[in-house]
Structures are given as structure tokens and as C-alpha cells.
Amino acid sequence: DAVVYWMRMGDLRITDNRALSLASAHAKKTDIPLVVVFILSPQDYKAHDRSPRRIDFTLRNLALLATSLGKLHIPLHIITQSNRRAIPNKVISFLEELSASAIYANIEYEVDELRRDTQISKAAQAKGIGAIFVHDKCVVEPGAVLTKENKTYSVYSPYQKAWLKKLNANIPYFLENCRQPHPNSESVRTTAKFGPLFDSLVPESVPGFELDPADRAKMEQVWPAGEAAASEMLRRFLRTKSRSSQLAAVDPLADGAEDSAKRSRISVYDAERDRADKDTTSRLSPYLSAGVISARACIRATMPDTKNAKVDGGRWIQEIAWRDFYVCILAGFPRVSMGRPFQEKYADIVWEGPALEGSYADELNPKAELSLATAESNIEKWKSGRTGYPIVDAGMRCLNEMGYMHNRLRMIAAMFLTKHLMIDWRIGEKYFMEKLIDGDLASNDGGWQWCASTGVDACPYFRVFNPYNQSSKADPTGDFIRHFVPELASVRGPDLHNPPAAAANKLGYPRPIVKHEESRDRALRRFKNVGSA
Ligand code: FAD
């Protein structure tokens, strides 16, 4: 007999993990062993455009988890199952092999995953095995705050107010600290049935998702794996403005600067969060996306005392609420995880380049103005950071190099692709997923659809960012652009944001591939005329 906890890509931690904690309590109460299983599925990762960096980060975390769980005499058993449709059967046969009495997991809200879990749940229950799927990803779970009409909120501000109120009224429930798993007895290691599970090795890489060694080494330094590393990242954000100078040496996004006033980064977050040239945000997104730290732990850490204090709802907490909001949208409107616009009227926008219709076809959108070759060349220039707009190019090169981009730059780059180049947001969304170490469907789709004006509570279509103005606000010192666009390293002052033709040609930097005003007008026309023949 055994109790199984199925660890997924989004909950790679031992502490403060609801499903693991419940599974452990069950095992302890019935005095049977707890087993942790993780299913690696290369086909699934392909289908979800997972980035090699995200997969590598997963494996690095799993390797540490195998050791920590091993110390508790809990096996971490890895199953590789390429055909993703076969996962339900694989899970059921694993449960049968162990004569398991129950399987626990944290809910994944994407449509494919919900369908898979429903299938597993039915099959398990038919065999008398308990299947318990619980909320864990959000601070306030989907469905816990609803509008007066009992509907999912589709506007962020009232959602955030209701979210904070609900949270503060139920702090023990929402911020409850799930205990560490109870250790198995030592003899589990030598039991014929369980012993071999301890020998299951975490692979170094997954075929098709290998990183080259230099990139892997860089990722290991910039984004170290493990719960302790995540807590340290959070601690630095809350307590001090400086990062270690050692990190600053390998990580161009860490400025390493000491703040003479000894202010914490969270205390200046509201004022400085949009600065891409400074190390102002927490950089916790890879850890939150992979669940190496829980969003609950992030909130708790901002509170002096979770027993008496209230969550303050400051700007940083509001970002955590954005994360919850997008998960609620994904759970409440399944079309967004199937590549559909949240605002369905925008399904008919005329995009340049390939016609998508649910797949990435190599055909020209029949109403497009540009040839397929021109649109594809624009897409390639955007991806590689050669649009001739320094802030867009610096952001995209940063994404390619670091697997990460500052929020403001994600907005600028996404708005540029969808409005200036009039390229379908799904192309950008897919590219981000393929590159980001923090790639997460709910936040990525939410962010892309916000920028494309097709999303929930999105940026209105007529508010097209001016990349030059955005550039001087996000990177006033120019340090960010100069680092990621070395062709412009010698340029100082306002020219850096919009290099004059002669200087750009001399330095070998491309001229803008489109004109701001013209492209803006085209975007406004397309959105205004949506649906008209
Ligand atoms: P901080 O500013 O320190 O914020 C703390 C945490 O709050 C973040 O780690 C994140 O979990 C959450 N958060 C912050 N801003 C947002 C937001 N706008 N939406 C949702 N959650 C937020 N975030 C991802 O985690 N994965 C993605 O794939 C992703 N794709 C995005 C794509 C686009 C086009 C845009 C505009 C935004 C995207 N974001 C995504 C949201 C945001 O850019 C990142 O979460 C943030 O930049 C991470 O940096 P940080 O950890 O320093 O954030």
C-alpha cells in the first residue's frame, strides 16, 4: 500500500505544498509509505512550447528535490512518458503496481491538463483509488472571488480589491503554512516494492531540450535551483538593495550597486519598477512559475506577523494579484488556453504574415498587405533583435541571452510585434514560451493579449506605445541598451533611443524596419475596422 503525490512542473518544492502536505498527512495517519512521482514528457513539452531553459531548470530542481526527499526516506520516482496521451494509463498502472490507496496533486488549470486529470480521477475512482486534486498555485484560488453576479472578474481593479479583502478576511486559510512532509520509516528503502524507486535518476537533459554547456553554466549561476536559492532571492528583495557583486559579474541585469540609504528594493519598487536599467524587481518569476517558492510564502514574507497583521496590498503584492488574476481567467475562460482571443470580436483582426487559425500554417493571411516573405523577415528581425528600435532590440536580445525580460520590456516588445509589425500575438507568445525560463501560459497569454488589445482588461487598441518615449523612460541611463546592443555602446544621450541614420550606418546598427507613425495608423485602422469586409 502507498500514498502517491504527483509532483508537476509548477510545484517543485517540499515546503508549503498543499498536495504534498495532504498526501503526507494521509500516509502518516494510515501508516503507509509516501511516494513522490514526476512524469517527464518530451512530447508534452513540445506541445506546450516549453523552453530548454525551463526544462533544464526543472531538472536542476528535481535533482535537489531527490536528495532532500531521500533524506526523509521518500522516493522521487521519475517516469519518462513521451506520448502525452498515454499519461493517464501510465499513472493508473503505476498506482496499481504500488497498490496505492490515493493519489494527490496540485491542480493545473490549462485545458489539456484538466481533461487529463479528469480522466485519471475517473479511472482511479473506478478502481477504488482516491484521486485528490487541490488548489495551490494561487494565493486566492480561482472561484474564491467572484463578481456580484457570481461570475469570474474580467476587470483587474475590482478583482484586486475583492482579492485583497477576501485574503485579509481569511488569512489563516489562504496563507496557511503547509507542513513539511512526514518522513517515511527507514525500512521503506529496503522494501522490495519501494526500494527500486529510490534508484530512479533525474536525467541531465531531455532529448530535444538540451542546452549548450555555456548556456547551462550561465543559467545555473543566474538562476540557481532549489528552495533555499528562491528564499535567498526573496530575502534580498525584501531586505537589501544590493545583489552580491559576484552575481553582478555574470548577470548583466544585476547592478550590484549598494544603496547608501540602505533601502530595500521592495520599498522603492513602486517608484522604480519600470526601470530596465536598474535591478529593481524581485526576479522571482522563474521560481514562482516552477513553484520552487509559493506565492503564499512571498506574501507572508512581507508581513511582520501573519497572525495579527493584514496584507498591505502595496504595489508588489498587486503584481502577485495579477498573477492570480490571469490564472482565474485561464480557469474561467478555457478558450484563452486554446489560442483564442479573450475578446472574441478580435478573432477577425487582419494580421500580417502566416494565417494561424489554431495552428502555425505556412500560408499567408489572405487579407494581409505584405508578402509572406516580408512578414517573415520582420518576424525574424524581431526575434533576433534587429528591428532598428534599440529598446525593442535590447529587450529581445536580453530574452535570447538570459531567458528573461523585464516586465516593461516584455510590454514594449509585444506591443511592437502586434501593433507596429501587425503580427499575430500568438507568434510572439509562442516565441516567448520557447525562450523564457519563467514561461507560464496564464501570465504569458495574459501579457500578450493585454499588449495586443485582444485580452481581458487589455490595453485599449488606440494606446499604441511610442517605442522612443518608452525607451527613454525604461532606460534613462541607456545602460541597458548599451549592454545588450553593443553596436551602440559608444552612443550617449537621447540619440541612443533613436540613432540618427549616419551614426547607425557607421556603427552597423539597422535602420528602423517600420516607421512609428505609419504603423500606428495602420494598427488603429485594422482594429477599428475589425469585422468589416
Ligand atoms: P516582480 O515585479 O518582482 O513581480 C513579482 C511577481 O509577480 C512576479 O515574479 C510574477 O510572478 C508576478 N507578476 C509580476 N507582473 C506580472 C504580470 N504583469 N502578470 C502576471 N504576473 C505578474 N510572467 C511569468 O511569470 N511568465 C511569463 O511567461 C510571462 N510572460 C509575459 C509576457 C508578456 C508579453 C508580458 C507583458 C508579461 C509577462 N509576464 C510573465 C509577467 C511579468 O513580465 C513577469 O512576471 C515579471 O517581469 C517577472 O519579473 P519579477 O519576478 O522580477 O517580477
TrEMBL record:
<dbReference type="GO" id="GO:0006950">
    <property type="term" value="P:response to stress"/>
</dbReference>
<keyword id="KW-0285">Flavoprotein</keyword>
<keyword id="KW-0274">FAD</keyword>
<dbReference type="InterPro" id="IPR006050">
    <property type="entry name" value="DNA_photolyase_N"/>
</dbReference>
<feature type="site" description="Electron transfer via tryptophanyl radical">
    <location>
        <position position="351"/>
    </location>
</feature>
<dbReference type="InterPro" id="IPR005101">
    <property type="entry name" value="Cryptochr/Photolyase_FAD-bd"/>
</dbReference>
<dbReference type="InterPro" id="IPR002081">
    <property type="entry name" value="Cryptochrome/DNA_photolyase_1"/>
</dbReference>
<dbReference type="GO" id="GO:0003677">
    <property type="term" value="F:DNA binding"/>
</dbReference>
<dbReference type="GO" id="GO:0005634">
    <property type="term" value="C:nucleus"/>
</dbReference>
<protein>
    <submittedName>
        <fullName>Deoxyribodipyrimidine photo-lyase</fullName>
    </submittedName>
</protein>
<dbReference type="Pfam" id="PF00875">
    <property type="entry name" value="DNA_photolyase"/>
</dbReference>
<feature type="domain" description="Photolyase/cryptochrome alpha/beta">
    <location>
        <begin position="2"/>
        <end position="139"/>
    </location>
</feature>
<dbReference type="InterPro" id="IPR014729">
    <property type="entry name" value="Rossmann-like_a/b/a_fold"/>
</dbReference>
<dbReference type="InterPro" id="IPR018394">
    <property type="entry name" value="DNA_photolyase_1_CS_C"/>
</dbReference>
<dbReference type="Pfam" id="PF03441">
    <property type="entry name" value="FAD_binding_7"/>
</dbReference>
<feature type="binding site">
    <location>
        <begin position="281"/>
        <end position="285"/>
    </location>
    <ligand>
        <name>FAD</name>
    </ligand>
</feature>
<feature type="binding site">
    <location>
        <position position="269"/>
    </location>
    <ligand>
        <name>FAD</name>
    </ligand>
</feature>
<dbReference type="GO" id="GO:0006139">
    <property type="term" value="P:nucleobase-containing compound metabolic process"/>
</dbReference>
<dbReference type="GO" id="GO:0032922">
    <property type="term" value="P:circadian regulation of gene expression"/>
</dbReference>
<keyword id="KW-0157">Chromophore</keyword>
<keyword id="KW-0456">Lyase</keyword>
<comment type="similarity">
    <text>Belongs to the DNA photolyase class-1 family.</text>
</comment>
<dbReference type="InterPro" id="IPR036134">
    <property type="entry name" value="Crypto/Photolyase_FAD-like_sf"/>
</dbReference>
<dbReference type="GO" id="GO:0005737">
    <property type="term" value="C:cytoplasm"/>
</dbReference>
<feature type="site" description="Electron transfer via tryptophanyl radical">
    <location>
        <position position="448"/>
    </location>
</feature>
<dbReference type="GO" id="GO:0043153">
    <property type="term" value="P:entrainment of circadian clock by photoperiod"/>
</dbReference>
<feature type="binding site">
    <location>
        <begin position="319"/>
        <end position="326"/>
    </location>
    <ligand>
        <name>FAD</name>
    </ligand>
</feature>
<dbReference type="GO" id="GO:0071949">
    <property type="term" value="F:FAD binding"/>
</dbReference>
<feature type="binding site">
    <location>
        <begin position="438"/>
        <end position="440"/>
    </location>
    <ligand>
        <name>FAD</name>
    </ligand>
</feature>
<dbReference type="GO" id="GO:0003904">
    <property type="term" value="F:deoxyribodipyrimidine photo-lyase activity"/>
</dbReference>
<dbReference type="InterPro" id="IPR036155">
    <property type="entry name" value="Crypto/Photolyase_N_sf"/>
</dbReference>
<feature type="site" description="Electron transfer via tryptophanyl radical">
    <location>
        <position position="425"/>
    </location>
</feature>
<feature type="binding site">
    <location>
        <position position="316"/>
    </location>
    <ligand>
        <name>FAD</name>
    </ligand>
</feature>
